[in-house]
């Protein structure tokens, strides 16, 4: 048996031989993770900048046509005039307006094609830098990895069949999740973007931009209309009532109120703060217009009640109900001019 001193020399020699190899491998792994992380961040940021710009190019082209329609450039606005007129929510209301919208439609199709190309380039570039990483480095919670564990759990919540691979991670984190936030940013930068999506039916182009849906009616004093609309739990919904010109001089005779009811059509949805602001068409009695913004608590059909409140000078009139939501379709009138005292 070799003396202890000889064994110690052998151990030291082996350590000296293997340590540089192990250290080099560790450094190589760290550099690979860092390279992948930089590419994820850089390509994601580039995609975000390009996509927001493309989205705004599209929606601004549509809203410019609508603003010109509102301003009477294509003929008298339909809100105050009978046909022939121009309705910014109906491209078929006016031939010149439709021509403008056709050009905007082409602009949007072009921008949507660009977004698809941006997405393909992002995926290719991230893949080329991250293909060497293990699933744990990509999707785990270890400090030396990308620490995408939380987002990876979100991907699993979105798709029960999701498994952690580079392709799946890019398609989830760098796909729908990122696109959802980009569409929300686009709406913040351009509040009429949701109107644009509705006007040209662009939901397939920008699936995470909320859609504005508008319906028109009129109410005698003391009466109410009930509208149904559907929504998913967690949907953020904006609802407001806009008055119309009842007298030909830019004034309204309606004092509107607004309530949201649950599926039983009798119970007001809790924790809904109805706020008021100045009406776009001022009321002769000085009444404000109601609105609310909230997240829906459950997936179901809800009901919106618009009433014409009685006052000394407001006697009822025209209104437009505006609903901005991710889905659910156009509100449907289920009760017309019913006795307001029978509803909450």
Shape: globular
Q: Level of helix content?
A: 40-55%
How many helical stretches?
6
Q: How much is the average pLDDT?
A: 86
In total, the number of strands is 9
Strand content: 15-25%
How widely separated are the two ends? 97 Å
How many domains, in number, for the residues? Answer: 2
Secondary-structure element pattern, one letter each:
HHHHHHEEEEEEEEE
Q: Gyration radius, to the nearest Å?
A: 29 Å
Structural class comes to alpha+beta
Q: How would you write the strand order of the largest sheet?
A: 1-8-3-6-5
Report the major sheet.
Answer: 5 strands, antiparallel
Low-confidence stretches: 7-27
What would the keywords be for this entry?
344 residues; alpha+beta; Jelly Rolls; 2 domains; four-stranded antiparallel β-sheet; 6 helices; 44% helix; 20% strand
Short description:
This protein is of the alpha+beta class. Helices cover about 45% and strands about 20% of the residues.
Structure overview:
With 344 residues, the chain is an alpha+beta fold. It is built from six helices and nine strands. It has two domains: 28-200; 211-342, Sandwich (Jelly Rolls). The strands form two sheets. It has a five-stranded antiparallel beta sheet, with helices on one face. It is globular, with a radius of gyration of 29 Å. The N and C termini lie far apart (97 Å). The protein has helices at residues 4-70, 95-130, 135-139, 149-158, 166-189, 193-200, and strands at 211-220, 223-231, 236-243, 256-261, 275-277, 289-295, 300-308, 316-325, 332-339.
């Amino acid at each position: 048996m070799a003396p202890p001193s000889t064994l110690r020399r052998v151990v030291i020699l082996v350590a000296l031989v293997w340590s540089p190899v192990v250290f080099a491998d560790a450094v190589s792994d760290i550099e690979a993770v860092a390279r992948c992380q930089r590419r994820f961040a850089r390509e994601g940021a580039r995609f975000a900048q390009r996509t927001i710009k493309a989205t705004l190019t599209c929606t601004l082209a549509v809203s410019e046509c609508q603003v010109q329609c509102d301003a009477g450039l294509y003929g008298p606005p339909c809100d105050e005039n009978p046909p022939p007129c121009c309705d910014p929510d109906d491209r078929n209301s006016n031939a010149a307006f439709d021509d403008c919208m056709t050009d905007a439609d082409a602009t949007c199709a072009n921008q949507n094609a660009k977004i698809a190309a941006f997405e393909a380039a992002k995926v290719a570039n991230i893949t080329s830098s991250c293909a060497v990483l293990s699933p744990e480095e990509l999707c785990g919670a270890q400090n030396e990895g990308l620490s995408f564990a939380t987002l990876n759990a979100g991907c699993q919540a979105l798709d029960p069949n999701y498994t952690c691979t580079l392709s799946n991670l890019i398609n989830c984190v760098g796909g729908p999740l990122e696109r959802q936030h980009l569409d929300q940013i686009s709406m913040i930068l351009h509040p009429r973007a949701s109107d644009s999506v509705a006007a040209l039916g662009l939901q397939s182009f920008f699936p995470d931009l909320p859609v504005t849906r508008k319906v028109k009616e009129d109410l005698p004093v003391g009466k109410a209309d009930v509208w149904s609309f559907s929504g998913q739990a967690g949907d953020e919904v904006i609802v407001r009532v806009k008055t119309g010109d009842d007298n030909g001089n830019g004034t309204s005779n309606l004092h509107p109120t607004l309530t949201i009811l649950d599926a039983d059509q009798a119970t007001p949805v809790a924790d809904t703060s109805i706020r008021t602001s100045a009406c776009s068409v001022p009321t002769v009695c000085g009444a404000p217009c109601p609105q609310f913004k909230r997240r829906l608590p459950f997936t179901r059909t809800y009901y919106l009640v618009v009433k014409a409140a009685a006052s000394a000078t407001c006697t009822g009139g025209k209104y437009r109900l505006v609903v901005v939501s991710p889905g659910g379709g156009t509100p449907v009138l289920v009760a017309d001019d019913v006795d307001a005292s029978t509803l909450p």
